[in-house]
């Protein structure tokens, strides 16, 4: 809202209050003169006032007493004055407040992070108006949103033209803050409890395949597909076909590690890793096979894959090889770039 408009509205409020106050004082003076001429005592006036302010059950529900007539008669200029002041303020103040609020929102910070993605400057301003647009529309439409934002920018004294607004919208779409045809925005996508559960499990278990995900979160395959598709749209996760499985990853993790992450997310490999984490001093293949009741060749196969990415440490004692986890490399594997 422009500063000149704010000043003008404040001036109107001031004039309204001042005019009502003068009217009240004038009516009060006229009432005093009338009381003197008609011989009405102060006690009689007080009696009326007592009746008006009495909030007892009997008076409120007594149909024989017209409260509104009492309030609006000539002996109650204070109520008339308050009513005359309050009525315009009832319409003016909300309008003024909403415009101040909008102005405050536009100026919020220079940088905002939405689920790991930073937006700044005009992106924040446009995003606020997009959220406003979505409150009145079923889904996001780039063209319609641009027209709506242009009209709101004019009212908010913005400095972007139509092409500038569309450029900012394109930037927000490239950052997956908003998606064409969706009612949701990136900051709302994880408000759904099932979707949040799916997302959290994928983040904690990168490379997990769809069937295992469905088992662990106890949701139907249909729901899994729907929520996963929404997470992919907003680039919170990504999908990859590996070893005849559809696997899911945190979109911020390095793609070159996808195959390994998928491998170590498999149930048998998870059991081997958990065993090695407990036995930090190292164990032989035979010990691992016996303790986990898992075939020796299966153990060797998974350990070989982990060796390719330097996730294991091997040492020999009396010609016996002991295997342990390389904790540092294991942590780096799941580290975001």
Topology:
Elements: H1 3-38, H2 42-53, H3 57-60, H4 67-72, H5 77-106, E1 111-114, E2 117-120, H6 122-134, H7 142-155, H8 162-174, H9 193-204, E3 208-209, H10 210-217, H11 221-233, E4 237-242, E5 245-250, H12 258-264, H13 267-278, H14 285-292, H15 296-307, E6 312-317, E7 320-325, H16 327-333
Antiparallel strand pairs: 1-2, 3-5, 4-5, 6-7
Helix pairs in contact: 1-5, 6-7, 6-8, 7-8, 9-11
Keywords: Membrane, Transmembrane, Transmembrane helix
Pfam families: HTH_HVO_0163_N (PF24266)
Domain HVO-0163 N-terminal HTH: 193-252
Structural notes for this entry:
- A hairpin with a 2-residue loop joins strand 6 and strand 7 (320-325).
- This protein has four domains: 3-105, no CATH class; 111-174, no CATH class; 193-251, Orthogonal Bundle (Arc Repressor Mutant, subunit A); 266-333, Winged helix-like DNA-binding domain superfamily/Winged helix DNA-binding domain (Arc Repressor Mutant, subunit A, Orthogonal Bundle).
- It has a three-stranded antiparallel sheet, sandwiched between helices. Strands 1-2 form a two-stranded antiparallel sheet. The chain has a two-stranded antiparallel ribbon with strand order 6-7.
- It has 337 residues and is mainly alpha-helical.
- The protein has helices at 3-38, 42-53, 57-60, 67-72, 77-106, 122-134, 142-155, 162-174, 193-204, 210-217, 221-233, 258-264, 267-278, 285-292, 296-307, 327-333; strands at residues 111-114, 117-120, 208-209, 237-242, 245-250, 312-317, 320-325.
- The model is unreliable at 45-75 and 96-109 (pLDDT under 50).
- Helix 6 (122-134) crosses helix 8 (162-174) and helix 7 (142-155) crosses helix 8 (162-174).
- The longest helix has 36 residues, at 3-38.
- The radius of gyration is 36 Å and the shape is elongated.
- The chain crosses the membrane at residues 7-26, 78-97.
- InterPro entries: HTH_HVO_0163_N, WH-like_DNA-bd_sf, WH_DNA-bd_sf.
- This is HVO-0163 N-terminal HTH domain-containing protein.
- It holds the Pfam family HTH_HVO_0163_N.
- Keywords: Membrane, Transmembrane, Transmembrane helix.
